[in-house]
Amino acid sequence: MSNIKEEIKYLAESIKDKIIQWRRRIHEYPELSSEEYRTSEFVADKLEEFGVDKVIRNFGGTTAVVGIIKGQEDITVALRADMDALPMEEKTGKEYSSKIKGVMHSCGHDAHTAMLLGAAKVLVQIKDRLKGNVKLIFQPCEERQDCRGARTLVQKGVLKDPDVSAIFGLHVFPELPAGVFGTKEGHFLASSDVFRIKIIGKGTHASRPHKGVDPVLVSAQVINALHHIVSRKVDPLHPAVLTIGKIKGGYAENIIPEVVEMEGTVRTLSLDLRDMIPVWMEDTIKGVTSAYGARYEFSFKEGNPPVINDRLTTRFTFSMLKDLFGDDRVVELENPTMGGEDFSEYLMKVPGTFIRLGIRNEKKGITAPLHSPIFDVDEDVLPDGSSALAYLAYKWLEEHS
Fold first, then answer.
1. Which of 80, 128, 155, 400 has the most neighbouring CB atoms within 10 Å?
2. Helix (H, G, I), strand (E, B), or coil: what is residue 195?
3. Cα(8)–Cα(134) distance, rounded to whole angstroms?
4. What is the C-alpha separation between 125 and 386, in angstroms, rounded?
């Protein structure tokens, strides 16, 4: 075929059954963050089978796999997929449901990995026409912030040797119709930080509350006060979320305990606001606990920075996806969302764009949100994801070599 666009689409569509098979195999055997041993081995074996020029297993001492397809010039573009699953029980009832109890691919990382494998196979078949190198990054530990998947890989040099000039990533999205691509320039996703609070009181019998300091009561007041930060301290034009998702304390109905512990998350789009919220939080906690005679411990851990799509690569993305699929299947998303993604770590170092691929198909009953126990993917879109990644890589190298 003389038309590279049509050739890439044809090659991806010709392996549709394989891409679906890869996705289902990964889905059946999901692995938690930093435990992607079976998935990593499967990916590396496939890349070697395809003929990828260089395959690095356990990159940087992690479960990451990095593949390099060598082209004609020194310029390099990167494509990234994440591989980890979530600690939850699947309830889809599908024949390819998770075979690992309490672990499920409910965020689509199985689809991301399968689509990047598809793109790799396509790119190997047109390698003689690549104007530069394509680096394939199969990343572990996107879901768990404490192991810092993307940040670790960046620190280990995943964007070096050869140096990456731009990076693209793709995430399935159940709020867009199946086969529709969406992205936007600038702020796309929020930072995702976590905090822990310990309220320390004085335990006593429940019938004698005046003899102790009730950390349950103090915690209730702290929670109420913290939720006023976003509504009263933050400019309403600057999005922010503060959520307490876990609280633990107490032994029995007739005991006032000594300690109550809480955990939560903060999401913002502004780096300045991101710095201020923990200060306001501690001031609030300190004031409330002091008023009730309690003590506190507070820790705030920065997670992923906001995902901020580069202007140049995003305009390029819109142009290429419209060229590949037509204007009606590519939308410019109006607003960012407050979800987080560690793809931001790559964007802190090199220009790039994060893209959403719609998977919603009401006729097939595929409508569940991300992180749902009944989440599933419209598998008919998987070759489109592979085509998109392969075409973006090919055209970026062609236009920047």
1. 80
2. strand
3. 15
4. 13
pLDDT in tens, 342-393: 999 999 999 999 999 999 999 999 999 999 999 999 999 999 999 999 999 9
pLDDT value of position 2: 57
For the chain, the average pLDDT equals 97
Contacts of 199 (CB under 8 A, 6+ apart): 215, 218, 219, 222, 249, 259, 260, 261, 262, 289, 294, 295, 296
Residue 362 tokens read as: 């009401």
Rounded Cα distance, 10 and 216, in Å: 62
**Nearby residues of 401 by Cβ (< 8 Å), 6 or more positions away:** 72, 73, 75, 131, 132
Residues 266, 242 contacting (CB under 8 angstroms): yes
Q: How many other CB atoms are found less than 10 A from the CB of residue 2? A: 5
- Residue 79: strand pairing partners: 136, 168
Cβ neighbour number for residue 252 with a 10 Å cutoff: 7
Distance CA 340, CA 353 (A): 15
The model's pLDDT over 78-109, given as tens digits with 9 standing for 90+, comes to 999 999 999 999 999 999 999 999 999 999 99
Q: What is the 3-state secondary structure (H, E, C) of 232-285?
A: HCCCCCCCEEEEEEEEEECCCCCEECCEEEEEEEEEECCHHHHHHHHHHHHHHH
